[in-house]
Amino acid sequence: MEVPKWIKPLFIVAGLYDGILAALFLIVPTQLFGAANIPLPNHLGYIQFPALLLIVFAIMFFNIARDPIANRNLILYGILLKVAYCGVIFPYWLVGNVPSIWVPFAFFDLGFLIIFIIANMNLKKVA
How many structural domains is the chain composed of? Predict the structure, then answer.
């Protein structure tokens, strides 16, 4: 059985999504926070460290895209990343206690989460 054709592009898009977001938060964090009318944390490291972690995950997604079968074990970490973000943002959003800038990212991540689970299930059939 062959790897479904949509899996490689999925992880390329996921890598680009996380990588571009990370780069923006690394390069222009003050402008992003200012545009969203959110006060900056007391140290830029609180923005830079999560951004760098997203770059690590972006690299991981590109590696999954390169060889989905060999790197299928990495999909679990992508699933957990998306669960973690959604698990933090959605409860705060439901009680009205999160800046609105973070909510669209949670919906994108929820979409990625669902598709990652489907991709992982499809790759189990192939492996």
Answer: 1
Query: Is 4's pLDDT higher than 90?
Result: yes
With 80 as the cut, is the pLDDT of residue 1 above it?
Answer: no
In a domain, 2, yes or no: no
CA–CA distance from 102 to each of 28, 38, 73, 89, 120 (Å)? Answer: 16, 11, 28, 7, 26
Does the residue 17 lie in any domain? yes
Which residues are CB-neighbours of 126 under 8 A, at least 6 positions away?
1, 2, 3, 4, 69
What's the gap between Cα 66 and its chain centre? 18
Range of the domain at 52: 7-126
Quickly list H helices, the chain.
Answer: 7-27, 29-35, 45-66, 75-94, 102-126
pTM of the model: 0.95
Mean pLDDT of 96-110: 97
- Residue 27 domain-assigned (yes or no): yes
DSSP symbols for 23-48: HHHHHSHHHHHHHTT-PPPSSTHHHH
Residue 1 lies in a domain: no
